Amino acid sequence: MLSAVSRNPTNFPVTSHLRFAASRLNWRLLYSAAPPIDTLATTLRPFPEYSPKRPTIQDAELVQNLTTTLKQRRSDPLRRVLSPFLPRLRPQHLIWAFSHLRSHPALALSLLHCYRRRARHVPLEAQAIAAHLALASGRVGAARQFLRQGLTSHRDFVEQVIYTFRHWSSDPFVFDLLFRIAVELGRLDDARSLFDRLTFFGVIISVDSCNAFLSHLAIDAVLKTFVELPLRGVRWNAASYNIVIRALCRAGKLGEAREFLLKMESEGGILPDVISYSTIIDGYCQAGDLPTAYELFDEMRTRGLKPNEFTFNSIISLLCHSDMAAKAEMVLLEMLNQGVAPDSAVYTTLISGFCKNGNISAVYRFVDDMKSRGLAPDAATYTALICGFCRCGMIVEAERLFDEMLRKGLNPDEFTYTAMVDGYCKNGRMHDAFRLHDEMLKNGLSPNVVTYTALTDGLCKHGDVEAANELLHEICGKGLELNVCTFNSLINGLCKSGNLEQALKTMSDMEAAGLSPDAFTYTTLMDAYCKSGDITRAHCLLSEMLDRKINPTIVTFNVLMNGFCIAGMLEDGKRLLEWMLEKKIMPNAATYNSLLKHYGMEKNMKVVTEIYRGMCARRVMPDESTYNILILGHCKARNMKEACYFHSELTARGFSLRADTYNALIEGLCRKKRFVEARRLFEEMQDAGFLADKKIYDLFIDLSYNEGNFELTLEFCDEAIEKHLIGTKADES
């Protein structure tokens, strides 16, 4: 971008060089011209006159011979031409030579390169002049390189660029480059100092370079600078306003960002563009405010602005994150209807969302759609797929994708490796998990606390709590801070191994490390106490949770409900359910299932029916376990009509019978002489891979024998013996 130069001839003497530079700046495609500034509210000063040290007669003769030889060089290598002069060249000779080569900038720069190879020290003045010459000859890349080298290696380099400017260039674009480089190097104070210094000479840094500066500032500095720089002549554009909107959104100041969007047009006279709206829509999506995001989305379209893939992806991402993947797919269809082509990021977001809710068939559909549009899955897409498959327990498919990713030359990152490690751990394949951990280290990737939490959890579930404890010490030794999930994994493993005392000590260690136990920590301990029969202690932990303002989850209440039921305290369980309803804590199917199961075990089907009706009245949908519990209970109570009714409901909803439910239902049907239905269920049970009880085989053996079907009787006997349900006489003795 060009620098805007003040047009004030009474205060700032514009040289012929400056006029020439101003007339030939159209070739700079990297930058767009800023609007000219008519006057500045400051006293302008001319740039300093350049007055280099004068050479001696001997020095002048050496420089004359050197530059003449350079100009007369034809095809000879430059090093060979310069070899007689280089041993005698001092830093000052370089600057004097530049004066003779001013109309041959390419030769001057070649001389500098050769000199630099031989001598380590290049004068500041020569470095600054080289930048001016490079820019004058249209070599913007070389100019950037000289400016960057000078800025990084010399403290007073800016002064030299200013000092040499008027004589060697008078092209203000050099300051734009210098300012931009200071910003890129993160030297924001130096950049601002340069900006302020240049305004005294009537040079205003271009708005695009100022935007680069603005985008590197913290939110408070952004707002302050946005007000200050227009007083110095900068005229902000749409990109400037968008930078401020983005900074406000990142700081969570969405209300201020929206107000700024309105000021953009009313005060700045600049119409918001697609980026303006997309940025603020993304801000509201990041905050989880879908209604406001949709409101801005509609406002954007009302103003005739067409949403782009980034706009749609923000909304799709929020919907997927909020477990509304189906609605996210509808947004994709709307996107396609509006002629906006989804990119890889959109598909990756959808794949991640559908993986999260376990809809693998939809995931495959999106992958095929993505490929049909010529979009190749990238590393992020593969990582989303691998995470999803590992979460669903499809470790073999995840392995296949991981290998495919490597074959395609896509590099897995920490997230990909951690997903695979977690998948192996959940499948009990600890050897593979640690092999992948070692592979991460070999590839220069650092396992993070999530990786080690997965390994700790896997070791605990594998029963190797001691190794998990050692791993925690190793994590601390690596300087990684343990998080709540890591401690929870260890506490869970200790509880499962029956070491409640150590689990409680670990919770104390967790608090000593400055981490507060959460609902999962307490729920894990409550579950362990319930299973050990210590309901009183479990109830005390619930009270402690509430005292510490930790909100119990529905899983917490389900753990306590199950504890009451296992201990035979069914009335206490019913009272807990009533208390939950009174406190507006909505139970789920698992809450009701505990009560249904244990009242069914006592054959108290009247209470079972009462609880089930209450469940349906509150619109809590029965799950597969609910139907199996009801069928089993009615079979034990010999209510086969009700059992068959719930079996029909289960089948209609696409659920499956468990092995014990099959056995109970078959036995009940046989007792009611409904042998055809019983035999059909028996065959269905075998097809499902379940093993029937000895009692069921006894019933079918007796039935076949009484029917005179001796061949089928022997077949049932052989099958029962083969499945070790009937022992031989030798075994029985």
TrEMBL record:
PROSITE patterns referenced in this protein's UniProt entry, alphabetically: PPR (PS51375)
Keywords of the record: Methyltransferase, Repeat, Transferase
One GO term (biological process): methylation
An MF annotation (GO) of this entry: methyltransferase activity
EC numbers, comma separated: 2.1.1.204
Keyword Repeat: yes
Organism superkingdom: Eukaryota
InterPro entries: PPR_P_subfamily, PPR_rpt, TPR-like_helical_dom_sf
Enzyme class: transferase
PPR repeat intervals: 237-271, 273-307, 308-342, 343-377, 378-412, 413-447, 448-482, 483-517, 518-552, 553-587, 588-622, 623-657, 658-692
Entry's family note: Belongs to the PPR family. P subfamily.
Protein name: Pentatricopeptide repeat-containing protein
Lineage: Eukaryota, Viridiplantae, Streptophyta, Embryophyta, Tracheophyta
